[in-house]
């Protein structure tokens, strides 16, 4: 496994590989890897000649007062995990190389970025689409892999790739959960033991809501209310949002039909967690 | 010369050519080609295995009340000119294929786009950087050629390419002028004969200002005033702006030093013309 820190070196290396006819799979991450990330890597390995994983905690997608400073980081641990998976390149650029002084350019997807997490975290998706554009141009992948825990992010990136004509296939990959149902997240490490217990209320509420729908409930508002009431019973939980939306455009649905996304963001103590489930009826 | 209208076809064709090891030079235009454009094409031919010229009058870079509707268009004429130059691909996409319904993504360079033409034409450069990003992703060039008549555009595109890490070299090319000094522009065709005569006041003022500086004048404000007075003597001319700025960051300069850009935009009748000159002292 090659470790590259310099963006120019990353780009030159890949251009050379592509001239040699290799296909490139890319997994962008913010590090502190869990099995969710590793499942993306495994899939990328199956589908491409060469796999690049990036680790970059992107400051522009964190708002003021958010958890950029305490976002978990452990490069040695991540490096060892990736080396075991035998990936080709670990790309680990510095903030200074990614956003040099005099940096002036942003990529923005409108409309679908105003909803869900975008409503709670203004500017978040602008930071995401900008860094992903930059990483795409540095890594020049044929396929890029994103986890569906960030369902809105997947939708935003797909929209951006389509709109800006990137020659890249976006591959959404299923959420990976702990045995007890908690969606894997690098942020879970910031939960204290009793918070870790309380955090189960997210997945449990989603699974129960899914069951209600499969049992015949079709009223979006009732599902929302059911989940909100469920979560409110947990004293450590503070709801940011609970939404039942179209999986296609994130518009709220009154009458559940077709493919819908139930998405939520909940603060457990100081840790903001997200989770979601897709339901098709 | 291959004519391609479909964006996907454009991208597939180029990917195939690049797999075969060909380098790609790209000249994006809005058509109604003049010798300025053709000089870009000639240079692209010298420096690359394959040359793509696009013709697309990009609606998103025109503001309300601007000249999108009367921007000159003549595809047959352009096609014949390019066929004679023996380029490889003429890319001629439709507005519907470039901005399909449900289009949501824009690329924006901040700061340097607020000045000069950006101040007079809000949103103009956002339209430019968005379409250029899209065209870059469709044509995947190694080098892209831009004329320095749009000096600010060149600076904005260079900033965008650096910031977003596009694997593309931007090649700025000199202004091409008519024999009497008028900078070539597709818009010149919209000038009536007496306006065409009046339009000479742009280049004449710039050349005279250049001479003043080379003769020792170093006061930016005096140069601006000199040009403005010169232009005001022409009854058909209405000044949009006259600026003496740093060629590096477009900040106005009081004391002329290093590489500066004298840039102006002037309406002759209903036709808005721009011109500029670089001076190094």
From TrEMBL, chains A, B:
Annotated positions binding beta-alanine: 61
The organism's place on the tree of life at top rank: Bacteria
Keywords in alphabetical order: ATP-binding, Cytoplasm, Ligase, Nucleotide-binding, Pantothenate biosynthesis
Catalytic site: 37 (proton donor)
Enzyme Commission code(s) on record: 6.3.2.1
Xref: Gene3D superfamilies: HUPs, Pantoate-beta-alanine ligase, C-terminal domain
Cross-referenced PANTHER family: CYTIDYLATE KINASE/PANTOATE-BETA-ALANINE LIGASE, PANTOATE--BETA-ALANINE LIGASE
Matches recorded under HAMAP family: PanC
Descriptive protein name: Pantothenate synthetase
Organism (species): Anaerobranca gottschalkii DSM 13577
Gene it is expressed from: panC
